[in-house]
Amino acid sequence: MSQEHFLLFHTVILAIETLLYGVCIAVFFHPFTGEILGGRNALRKCPGKKELLVFLIYTGTYLAPFSAGWQSMILIMILLTASAGLLGMERRLVFLLGVIFYCVRSLVMMILQSVNDLTSGWFLRNADTPEKVYRSAALNYLLVACLQLVLFYGMLRAVRALLKKREIALHTKELCYLLLTPVTGILFVAILLRLLVISGKDQVIRLYETYPAFLGLVPATAILFYLGILAAIASCQKVVCLQEQQKKHFVEQQQILAIRERLEEEGQFYESVRQMKHEMKNHMTNIQGLMESGHYGEMEKYIRKMDESMSAFELVIQTGNAVTDVILNQKRTLALKMGAEFRSDFHYPASETFDAYDIGIILSNLLQNALEACSAISGRPKYIFLSGRQKKKFYLITVKNSFQGEVRFDSHTRLPVSSKGKNISRDPLSLHGIGLSNVKQTAARYGGDLDICPGKNEFCVTVLLQERSQK
Is the pLDDT of residue 399 over 90? Predict the structure, then answer.
């Protein structure tokens, strides 16, 4: 093989490598595209075109005439981050995936540098002519390139599988934590590449020839960096898991408190009924005495007062179900106490596939959130409007309430989140998100979902449920 043929071979292999690495980054990004809901995404209904966009950004940059190592990497990162909206991804997630991609590629390259140093000596052991040297160098380059691509794809696939195991809300703190190891790994490789061969005035120093131990130390260090990336992702996901458990525990505590309050209210209700029953005999005696004495006017007033007292034990809102009757009347009483108008057009679904307990969870959380929102309003009217209607196999629950303030949404769950640094037990907005999370989970059991529409002065939540099979 001549020098010209070797250079041509090297150019062709580099182009093929670029295309294959473009496929790898497109496959790496694939599971994460399309996670942001809503918006005008031109590629939303075009399967495969998001991955094609990633592929074209990568290969187009590296195959361009002005292509250069670090400059190409930075340009690709900028283009991918700018295209986050088209990909349906968060910019922070795009940036993280890009950094991890380049870090793993750099680490694999350093691992294969040691392999290349060993295999090149084996291929060139019998090369005694320039043609044999070029041919042996070409075969060695092809072998190392194939090994590097296979190892890179395997390591990248493991990272992707771990990232998909549990979603992480990438706020600034989490992003910095996850970027620490891969950025350090990229810098480590950049420094080491400049130390592999050092040219002086009179001699050339090769790192692996001068210090043979680095043939093992460099790959071991690269592997440790890779394991550090996996450990950082796993630990961050563990923290997310613990936070979810904390929220779940907090919700359970709130439910226990709600049940306790409900029992106390029921106890007071039945105590009042017992007292009324005990006093009925005295009331009848008084009415009989007024009638016998001919004081019919006084008797009428007495009966009217008794009727007013008895009305306190009636349920103003009748839904067709005892559980929802109690919930709605209780929330109505609380709303009236804080000066909020409460209107209900809720009718319990006729289908037996809907569980009263599940409907109760949805109503309790939605109305409790509405009450919290109204309690924070001052200086203008407060209201809570509830409706619940069934249309064929679907049941729709809507709660509208007056609202004051701003709502920040989590990019993954699309539910309200608390402000940074606030305690979960004291932040009403955080409770709002937890309550809606319970509603969303309950709706999912019925093949439904919830839609949140925050306005300037009104907060509206709609829950869609679907009849389940009797089986």
Answer: yes
Residue in 347, 367, 387 with CA at minimum distance from that of residue 439: 367
Both structure tokens of 276: 């009324």
Q: Sign (positive/negative) of CA torsion 57, 59, 62, 64?
A: negative
What is the Cα–Cα distance from 371 to 384, expressed in whole angstroms? 8
User: What distance in Å separates the CA atoms of residue 329 and residue 320, rounded to the nearest whole number?
Assistant: 13
45, amino acid identity: K
Q: pLDDT tens across 275-297, in order?
A: 777 777 777 888 888 788 888 88
Structure-token pair, residue 452: 């949140």
- Residues 442-470 pLDDT 10s: 888 888 888 888 877 888 999 999 887 65
pTM: 0.62
Angle at 37 between CA 36 and CA 42, to 5 degrees: 85
Q: How far is CA 315 from CA 181, 310, 331, in A?
A: 62, 11, 12
459 touches 370 (CB < 8 A): yes
Terminal-residue alpha carbon distance, the chain:
73
For 229-239, write each residue's pLDDT tens digit.
Answer: 999 999 988 88
Give the span between the Cα atoms of 5 and 9, in whole angstroms: 6
Residue 270 has pLDDT above 90, yes or no: no
Distance CA 230, CA 235 (A): 9
Q: Is the pLDDT of residue 420 over 50?
A: no
Indicate whether 102 pLDDT > 80.
yes
% pLDDT > 90, the chain: 21
